[in-house]
Amino acid sequence: MKKLLFIIALVLTVAAASAQSYPPKDEETPRLTFAMQLNVTLGETYSVGQTAHGKRIVIPITGGTFEGPALKGTIVNGGADYQLASADGRRTELEAIYSIRTDDGVYIHVRNRGLIAFDAGREGQPSVYFKAAPRFEAPADSRYAWLNDALFVCAPAPWSAPGTIVLNVWKVE
């Protein structure tokens, strides 16, 4: 317990010392490093209908591939993207739950939560905000354990073939 309190006090001391510059210095700004690109194949979308929380939409994840500087493999069939659309259709929350399998046979669980928001944008031009934050669960004793200890963000590529979505993923440094 004393060790935990010491660690918390140390973290708070470091945070207080670094919080003295406003706005933050450039070197304090998180950087993004490209981690991978997911090419996801999708099944037929269906709707549960209007629920107490919004319109529930389900998009099956049927497979695909992924590749990055430190990993490569396939997307396992059987996951889904569970979306919840607002009544006015301007906002959709998403939660995709699926697994990937590296070329050397390691399974990694993925839970990707995000937001799609539609707006009139500047000068009346429509705009779409679509970002998500995947969380990875890799075996702790594997060469992919680094995925467990970092935050990631992703955004769709501006192009995707019908029945697919391409997501670019970055590690927050």
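Second entry:
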Amino acid sequence: MEDARFVWQKNMYNSSCEPCTISIFSRLVRDACVNWKINTRRAIRKAVREGLSLDAFAKRGDFQSWCIDQSARPRAGEKFCQLSTAQKLLQWGDLLKDSLPDFIFAVSEFGLVPRKDKNGEPILDDEGQPMLYRRRKQENILHLSGLFMSDYDHLPFPPQELFESTQRPGYPFKTRLAHLTSSGEGLRLVSECIIGAGNIADQQYIQARELGMLHVKGTTGKYVTDNSCVNADKLSFVPRLDDILFIDEDKLFIF
């Protein structure tokens, strides 16, 4: 049986968090659907940013079907119809990102809990027993992996430059994985926690300070450091294989 240090889920909404082995990881980063979603989102963002034609995207059947569904929503539908084609496409691109599989690097196991219906009642299987799954919730964490994930997005310089800073002598963290974010404009780092350096928030602060990223603002005008990553149950969307800048397979998947 293959080693699995952290967990993954098929989607961020209701999938069970299961052990992620190197085989699963390798399959996901090479998956054609994953690659298509990331490539399409980037192409839309580039076309909007550079004022290129959006016709090829706007004429897609899946995009048009999504627009029909959004327009039919009570109250929100009217507001959606007032958006420009570019705004609608950007929202659709974000939806493609949100539908990607994801990893939860800081957690090695979530506890089993019953699935519940919209009324909060347990969903039963054919034998009348509660259907159980490993829910991604902070209070449902059983074991941590000893890893932490950091997200530096919308960088005002090439993300590869930030990765190179992690390779300098004296940098205190051991990097296990580094890859571009789904936008292509940021860097996601998975690092080994330093024993005695505090919780995830403390580790991220030390890392951002060491990398000179504490007060850097990105292309959106906001600070590039994603503070929501201080939660151990924070997910990380699957990257394309081509977006992986560095991976330490021996340590990423084995304690």
